[in-house]
Amino acid sequence: MTSPLLHLRALMLISALVAVVGVDAIAGSSGGDRIAGVATLVLGVAGVGVALDLRRRDAAARADGPTAWSGAVASPAAMVLAATRAVPGGPPSAAPAAMIRMSVHPLHDRGVSLTPDEADRLLQVAVERARRTLRTGDVVTRVGVYDMAISLHVPCNTDIVTALAERLRDTLLEPVSLDRLDVRLAPRIGVAVDDEEAPITSGDVVETLLRRAEEARGQADGDGGSVMVWRDGHSQVSLRRSELSTRLRRALRVGDISLVYQPIYGVEAGRVTAVEALARWDDVKFGHVSPVEFVGLCESLGLTAQLMRLVLDQAVAQVVEWRSEGLDIGVHVNVSGHDISENRLPVWVGESLRRHDCPPALLTLEITETAVIARPDRVLPTLHALRDIGVHLSLDDYGTGYSSLLYIQKMPIHSLKIDQAFLANLTRSESDEVIVRTSIELAHALGLSVTVEGVEDSTTMARAIEFGTDHIQGYFIGKPERPGSVRVTATVGLRGTA
């Protein structure tokens, strides 16, 4: 018997479809446009057609597990062509210039199986993220439980499509929060382009592009995050990313990731009282690798915990060394949303503190509010355990997420950091002034201290102090520095005030 929930989903999608692209786009001009056993609904959202397979799952209801219903899908080529005909403003039967085949298999505990509804949710999130990345006229089609085909109809070449696929990959790396667990997607992407480098001289263009893209995807990195391009009968990976992955794993294993430290000024103390530890990677072959690139790579490869533990241990060791030299400052370490959900985090922190004989109060862990709001049931117990150890907890990037100070009072945190977006125009924007001043006042009412970040001039610093902030961070206080320079900054004082 068909699930009532499936009927409801189909009804909602049909209603949305009628409102956006009209009934004619569903039915097509002839019966030949229909695919047996599949109702392909194309939603024209922001000019991008999103084709979702809403086939009946009577057989799935009698089967065990999602694999029983994952294979009963119509021909990808037929689905793409059906979707193409319904793209608003698109040509009636133009063949695509390129094809992307992508799987977004979930990475989670091996002992946990996703239900069909959870698999659907993952694909819905992936399709929505893809839609925001693609261009007008590009079509996303579901062709399996965790598989999508994307047809590109705007004239393009291999470089353009590869760049688009890499942006698409990057949007899919953020974990997806389901009701009972967080799931990290592992995108594997294959690209095929009908251009001068790999022209299609015979056969059906769509079928050939799909086959080539599928071959390329089949050779993608099993950990996810690879973009493979079909060329001259074989697939070639983005060599930089592939080699960076190998070199990053080695750098984490041997400790080649270094730290710089950005000073944090304590208003009451009138000096630098803490620093924020920031990871840096200078590779022998590739030189300086942007933190955005290698941190994103860690996320796609499942290496965030390894990176966090390395940064944590180096930072704790450094603050103990400074303490032995008479420099009394604390250190802040960022913890990702994935790592804060890890119930072993308090154990790792405790081990590092004991190993270096570091007083827990010298360590502050910075977490984002979105990480807490996304999974409070998993994050809050971890936060309580960390607070019990004695480390300080700070809510980072306050103001950019979804929480309110009334919700924050339930969190076992000591402080919050107001995002730099509100400081950039503090002296010129009345609304930003109100937000910063009010946030500081309410935080103090809840017993929390406040840090403002992004302070780049004396006027902004003076205004933040006037509003009552406890700590100030930004380029006016100091840029990220190597440990030796931190000693000078913390000892001498603010730039230009020595």
Name its key features.
disordered N terminus, 498 residues, elongated, eight-stranded mixed β-barrel, TIM Barrel, nine-stranded mixed sheet, 19 helices, 2 domains
Question: How far apart, in Å, are the first and last alpha carbons?
Answer: 78 Å
Which homologous superfamily in CATH is the superfamily of the largest domain?
A: EAL domain
Secondary structure tally: strands: 18
Shape: elongated
Amount of beta strand: 15-25%
Count the DSSP helices: 19
Number of separate structural domains: 2
Helix amount? 40-55%
By secondary-structure content and strand pairing, the structural class works out as: alpha/beta
CATH architectural grouping of the largest domain: Alpha-Beta Barrel
CATH class bucket of the largest domain: Alpha Beta
Average per-residue pLDDT, rounded, comes to: 74
Query: What about the largest sheet?
Result: 9 strands, mixed
Structural Rg: 26 Å
**What would the CATH topology of the largest domain be?**
TIM Barrel
Model regions low in confidence, pLDDT < 50 over at least 5 residues: 1-74, 85-93
